[in-house]
Design goal:
Elements (H helix, E strand, L loop, with lengths): L2 E9 L5 E8 L4 E5 L6 H16 L7 H9 L8 H22 L3 H5 L7 E9 L2 H13 L4 E6 L27 E4 L1 H19 L4 E5 L6 H11 L6 E3 L9 H8 L4 E3 L10 H5 L5 E2 L8 H14 L3 E4 L7 H13 L3 E5 L5 H6 L5 E3 L2 E3 L12 H5 L10 E4 L4 E2 L2
Parallel strand pairs: 4-5, 4-12, 5-7, 6-15, 7-8, 8-9, 9-10, 10-11, 11-12
Antiparallel strand pairs: 1-2, 2-3, 4-14, 13-14, 15-16
Helix pairs in contact: 1-3, 2-3, 5-6, 6-7, 7-8
The structure holds 2-keto-3-deoxygluconate and magnesium ion (MG).
């Protein structure tokens, strides 16, 4: 059996997605997500110019060998462009293998460890009262876990405040828009938000919050401590994690559970955080951290240290990643939670899929493979449009972490 062809499909049904489709000489095909928000075309080139020529003629059943070939064989290891490309190949090959076996992907991984995947949705508002109402709306929709992000008095474009009601979509302009950040105003506000949320809705639902890399370790420790009465499910990306040791300081000051890892590419980004038990949830995803093959390795390592999974699932991860993630989630023994930001109807039409939402849980379907396809005729209706993530500056003009 051989890989006969592979092609990259770029489409923009409201936002950009990059998809790899690998076809075998027996007519079976698989697809993988390669979307890297704001840097999409770099992965297109990496795949078209440097990966696809090496794939043609290879045996698609040898997933591990192909993974090692692309990772070790590339010499230049790791990084988001390389690893998003490897992820797309890996996801497409697992899709092919599961289709050939006539099994949903989770069966190939070892079968279901649970019946359903608990997801968290995004409640966003321009101010405290709108955010409180939004959380109520998510409770009414059946969610058991809700992330709350709010506009902060005095900060015009706080992270997480959406343009519309459907979801928070961060890539907002053809060149990066500039936002102004003020940590003091944010730190004064966030405990008030969670105080109001618990006061209004009680303690039956899981609440989450994303600090989006904005704080220093000592600020993060202080915020975590002040949020303890509100029993968050997690505080996410409290401080940038290039320096994994920085989390020691946060841990010394708070028992609020910590989550990190949506921008991580390999186990090496998370190794110290996990083995020193500095985090509670690892947020690596199928598309960013080397596909099913590598994500499984990270999860198994994390299990030793009682760290659970909480994969990234924003709208810039295509339904292909969401479908593959759900098969992974329903299998992985140390599952924690899955992020779920709903896609638009246009996106869902480009990527027909069989996963379903019910009462706060997502369910992968039973179709052989990962259960997500691409409609190339629909995809062709939406040509690529440049779109960047915003950048953040402090009030004095210094660059900050967006
Ligand atoms: O592309 C960047 C987004 O995926 C990210 O900003 C969303 O932080 C995010 C989250 O937790 O979903
Ligand atoms: Mg995040």
């Amino acid at each position: 059996m051989k890989i006969e062809s592979a092609k990259v499909i770029v489409t923009c049904p409201g936002r950009n997605f990059v998809t790899l489709k690998i076809t075998t000489d027996q007519g079976v095909y698989g697809i993988g997500d390669a979307t890297l928000n704001g840097r999409e075309l770099s992965v297109v080139s990496y795949l078209e110019d440097h990966v696809i020529p090496c794939l043609i003629g290879k045996d698609p059943r040898r997933i591990e060998d192909i993974w090692q070939y692309l990772y070790r064989g590339g010499y230049w290891r790791r990084g988001p462009v390389t690893m998003s490309a490897i992820s797309a190949v890996d996801t497409a090959l697992w899709d092919i293998k599961a289709k050939m076996a006539g099994m949903p992907l989770y069966d190939l991984l070892g079968g279901k460890s649970r019946e359903a995947v608990m997801v968290y949705g995004h409640a966003n508002g321009i101010d405290l009262s709108e955010t409180v109402d939004e959380v109520g709306r998510y409770i009414d929709m059946g969610y058991r876990a809700i992330r709350a992000q709010s506009g902060v008095p005095g900060i015009k474009d706080a992270y997480g405040v959406g343009r519309g009601k459907m979801y928070y979509e961060p890539a907002d302009a053809a060149l990066p828009s500039e936002t102004v950040w003020d940590t003091r105003k944010y730190l004064n506000f966030v405990p008030k938000l969670f105080d109001k949320l618990r006061d209004t809705y009680g303690f039956d639902h899981h609440l989450l919050h994303d600090a989006h890399h904005r704080l220093t370790p000592i600020e993060a420790g202080s915020l975590g401590h002040r949020l303890e009465p509100y029993q968050l499910f997690w505080l996410e990306d409290a401080t940038p994690a290039e320096n994994q040791e920085a989390f020691k300081l946060i841990r010394q000051h708070t028992t609020t559970p910590l989550a990190v890892g949506e921008i991580f590419n390999t186990i090496w980004d998370a190794k110290d955080l996990i083995q020193n038990q500095l985090i509670d949830y690892i947020r690596t995803t199928v598309v960013r951290a080397g596909g099913i093959t590598h994500l499984r390795r990270i999860a198994d390592f994390a299990a030793i240290w009682q760290v659970r999974t909480g994969s990234h699932g924003a709208t810039d991860l295509s339904p292909v990643t969401m479908g593959a993630a759900l098969h992974f989630d329903v299998w992985v023994p140390n599952f924690g939670i899955q992020e779920y930001m709903r896609h638009t109807p246009e996106t869902d039409a480009v990527f027909p899929h069989d996963y379903t939402f019910d009462k706060g849980f997502l369910y992968p379907g039973e179709t052989p493979g990962h259960g997500v396809d691409i409609d190339e005729v629909e995809a062709a209706k939406y040509p690529y449009k440049p779109a960047y993530l915003p950048v953040a500056r402090l009030e004095d003009g210094s660059m900050w972490n967006w």
